[in-house]
Write a structure and sequence with these properties.
- About 50% of the residues lie in helices and about 15% in strands.
- It is of the alpha+beta class.
- The chain has one domain.
- Strands 1-2-3 form a three-stranded antiparallel beta sheet, with helices on one face.
- Strand 2 and strand 3 form a beta hairpin.
- Helix 2 runs antiparallel to helix 3.
């Protein structure tokens, strides 16, 4: 038997307010990871340290791969996300949404 399986449903469900707080945190983490990935790519380009594939396109750096993993995992849970031109993220999951710094 799974540990905690006998808990009452109300005790195990995340309240909507708690979910919104968690989503704002997720949006903030995406903002940070995106900014770091972009900065790292710019630094690598300036230093001439980019690696390229056979088509001449730059390969993603480790921070870009982490960002792609974060968004893919969020989508796998049924979440949706958007990024605006300033790099700010909006995330949506289970009828709740969040944006870093928002309420």
């Amino acid at each position: 038997m799974v540990a905690g399986a006998n808990r009452r449903k109300e005790d195990t469900e995340m309240k909507k307010a708690d979910l919104c707080v968690a989503l704002r945190g997720m949006a903030a983490k995406l903002d940070i990871q995106w900014a770091y990935a972009q900065r790292l790519a710019a630094e690598q380009a300036a230093a001439g340290a980019l690696a390229y594939n056979e088509e001449g396109e730059p390969l993603p750096n480790s921070a870009q791969l982490c960002y792609a993993g974060m968004t893919a995992a969020f989508e796998a849970m049924g979440g949706e996300w958007e990024r605006n031109k300033e790099g700010r993220h909006w995330v949506y999951l289970l009828g709740a949404s969040g944006m870093a710094g928002g309420r």
